[in-house]
Amino acid sequence: MSLPRFIVIKSIHANACLGFKQDDPYEGFAEFSEMVTSPNAKFEVESAKGGLVHIRNCINMKYLERTEEDSISGKADEQFWITATAEKKEEDQSKEWCTLFQPLEEDLVNKTYRFMHVQSGCYLLLRQSYSSDITAGVLATSTKIDANGNDVFKVVDWDTLVILPRYIAFKGNNDMFLRLAEIDGHPYLQFLGEDIGEAAVAMEVFYTPNGDIRIKPVYSDKYWKRKPDWIWVDSDDTKGNDKDTLFHPFKVDGKTIALLNLDNKMFCKRFTGLGRTSCLSARIPSVTKEAYLNVVEPVLSRKIENLRYDTENARVYDEKVQIVAKNSASNHTTQSNTMDVKLTYTDTTTSTWNSHFSLGLEAKASFEFGVPIIAEGSVEISTNVETG
């Protein structure tokens, strides 16, 4: 089974996802220290022949490779580490800096894999707490399977993740906003809000390392909690230890999600019954239209300025020689002559910005920014551009 194009690699033992160190002295070294929704945890898989792959981090745009460094653990048999430092992929398996890896499926149901560095034949292995600089690094020194399972990693398809803004509002299939409402002395969540500007409508989202979420109204210190199947706003658990306060978001379409309560494994829906009208309740095993939650940002507009680009990690794609213009002239005399040949070409530049969030939300934004351009082999920032 082939890997998805964009993945997150999670260590069960470290309870964290793979990223890379962004500061000295071990900048670029792979480390299990990220949440599943972190941009640094996103890797792109590029297929090669024979089921082999190159794996590239989507932040610094560099490929994973095997790097020698004996100062981390101080042990002679632990001197080769995985780093996200290769500028270009290398398929020559005779070279130590070969960037080819072989994913070996361990468990199809749980989507766990081992990864072998092809040139060395060594498995990627979690190594914890050798240094305060790298607390959960990745070794590549052993050609044997680890008896403790530190070489088994869960692979998550990035495109299945639902990455929400911190502040959101929910609209039900009755076209009303979900809001905090006190009913018979209890803090229910009810789909009766008419204005996104209501104080009780805006919600704040908190992610766990696994990609599950906790939610609370912005103007309240209490979190959502299933009780018993209604969702009340009365939890003081700020750590996510209570499964009744944890929800997993599932993407329905570009603007709509469904929420699964992790304790009773039921989806939340707009429910009328038991003396309550259009209140949120975790009570159905599958997603119906009453479980659709349209996600809206409680923001009328925003202005983004003073953007800074990471030009040190800029990358030029698909370099190749191109004929930009051509012309010719003929001398039909027997004497040397000088002729003018005019060449013209059109240079078109396109710039694209993508949001980290996985839903297509509609808050209007105005930008003031410089545009990165390639000039004489390096990346420079042009004059400012404004757009609204």
UniProtKB/TrEMBL annotation:
Classification lineage: Eukaryota, Viridiplantae, Streptophyta, Embryophyta, Tracheophyta
InterPro entries xref list: Agglutinin (IPR008998), Agglutinin_dom_sf (IPR036242), Natterin_C (IPR053237)
Organism: Gossypium davidsonii (Davidson's cotton)
Transmembrane segments: none
Official protein name in the record: Agglutinin domain-containing protein
Domain Agglutinin: 162-297
Matches recorded under Gene3D superfamilies: 2.80.10.50, Proaerolysin, chain A, domain 3
Pfam family, one: Agglutinin
